[in-house]
Amino acid sequence: MTDPLQHLTPDEVEQWATGLLGATRAIHLAQCADCLAAAERERKFFRELAQLARLAPSADFADKVMAKVRIPTPSGGLEKR
Amino acid sequence: MISPSAALPRAARTTSEEGDGVIGAKDRPANLTGASDQDLVEWAKQGHEPAFRELVRRYERPVFSLLYRMVRDRALAEDLAQETFVKVLNGLASYRAEFKFSSWIFKIANNAAIDHLRKRDLDTLSIDGSPHATTPDEIAATALQLDGRGEDPLQEVEARELGSAIERAIGRLRPEYRACILLRHVEGHSYEEIARILDLPLGTVKTYIHRARNELRVHLQDRRE
Ligand SMILES: [Zn+2]
Hints:
Chain A is mainly alpha-helical. Helices cover 51% and strands 0% of the residues of chain A. The radius of gyration of chain A is 25 Å and the shape is elongated.
């Protein structure tokens, strides 16, 4: 198994930053200031990205889409009938 | 017959009972916001207009946001988003349920963005020198082109919406990297889902995301210095 003294890999740093790193590897962070600093920097960066706003299209977007959508007719136009 | 207490028909039942259309009006909840994407797709295929609208409501912001950040032009992003939804909703008959609906719609949206950006790259080939910027200078040149249009009110909105340091840094990434970063960190897709959306090997997705993050850090560092 992995040596607890071994520094975290970039994948492990990402796992920690997203709350998915196993406890056995997370122990290393209590012993290594370098890895802890790197992991915290990564977590802050990920949070900044995750907080980017969901931007909205114009208010009539759905109507414009629906005007071009062909709705199957239950009375006969369905491919499954 | 399904009992009236079963509020949401599950996908497994859908398959066995769609032949006689049992799912139809009876078991469909009045409020569709809690329905699964799979159920909405089934109902839409049966001609239920509100199911189409719920799919649009659910995905208009995520899809538009991805496209907007990819092309960095509000009006164009809206056209591409419309094109994406029309294609998806008119193509529900060919939708395969083993593919997540969200992956499918993001795949079509991303293809629309990449196609557009490639065409634009070809148009600007003589200025840019290369359709695929690889060095930081080339990437910066490409990013400047993306932002370098005339002044107009819409551009002010764009500057407000995409003007923060992190948005500008994302705008400087090459399109493939940008798509990976947005799908991973803004939309929260797994690496496997991103590989399916982008039609790329898993290893390539990991490499792109790793490189994209490094580039973002460098771009953000530039701004802070
Ligand atoms: Zn360490």
